């Protein structure tokens, strides 16, 4: 039976994680390792300043007092004798579209799995109602995972519209869109008169063309975007070299 490692960034008690587990438990041998609290926005951070605690819960899940990447690192890399065949992160409460992937702990958990040599999928629901829809999508993808062939260090970022299963129009392979510049932080005053700052909501879409993840979700399609971990802007290398040569 296929061995799957499940994780997330919303925390070990999140309903999206339970929905994912319940949809897959009849089809695979599951291990769940997730943060002990909400770690949304943790991105790819690892905890290096202290040791981590791994706690077994009554439902068979494991919680970690660290980041999503910590959870996958421990789940894959030596805590147990058996390595998983696949890492799946989610189901996230809210979409991870466009620039979101740079900050997302959901995507980071999948990325850590990919960095450790696993096939990895990040699953997000673009809302917080129809987790059963996203769970069905995840189950169908896992069922065909053996036939998936990806280039090295690639993962799949999957976003699902927050609609009933019968309202899903289909599945589209997409590229990441882009959002505009971030808004200013919101200043608030705490009870002691000190100023504190909330990070502002995401900005409006700057690129949501027909082939983007934004457009697919808006039209009612599941979006699947292959992601790579190489952030090099290869076409710009020649420009930078020419710039250096000009004043060398």
UniProtKB/TrEMBL annotation:
<feature type="binding site">
    <location>
        <position position="9"/>
    </location>
    <ligand>
        <name>a divalent metal cation</name>
    </ligand>
</feature>
<dbReference type="InterPro" id="IPR036523">
    <property type="entry name" value="SurE-like_sf"/>
</dbReference>
<keyword id="KW-0963">Cytoplasm</keyword>
<feature type="binding site">
    <location>
        <position position="40"/>
    </location>
    <ligand>
        <name>a divalent metal cation</name>
    </ligand>
</feature>
<feature type="binding site">
    <location>
        <position position="92"/>
    </location>
    <ligand>
        <name>a divalent metal cation</name>
    </ligand>
</feature>
<dbReference type="InterPro" id="IPR030048">
    <property type="entry name" value="SurE"/>
</dbReference>
<comment type="function">
    <text>Nucleotidase that shows phosphatase activity on nucleoside 5'-monophosphates.</text>
</comment>
<comment type="similarity">
    <text>Belongs to the SurE nucleotidase family.</text>
</comment>
<keyword id="KW-0479">Metal-binding</keyword>
<dbReference type="InterPro" id="IPR002828">
    <property type="entry name" value="SurE-like_Pase/nucleotidase"/>
</dbReference>
<feature type="domain" description="Survival protein SurE-like phosphatase/nucleotidase">
    <location>
        <begin position="5"/>
        <end position="179"/>
    </location>
</feature>
<protein>
    <recommendedName>
        <fullName>5'-nucleotidase SurE</fullName>
        <ecNumber>3.1.3.5</ecNumber>
    </recommendedName>
</protein>
<keyword id="KW-0547">Nucleotide-binding</keyword>
<feature type="binding site">
    <location>
        <position position="10"/>
    </location>
    <ligand>
        <name>a divalent metal cation</name>
    </ligand>
</feature>
<dbReference type="Pfam" id="PF01975">
    <property type="entry name" value="SurE"/>
</dbReference>
<keyword id="KW-0378">Hydrolase</keyword>
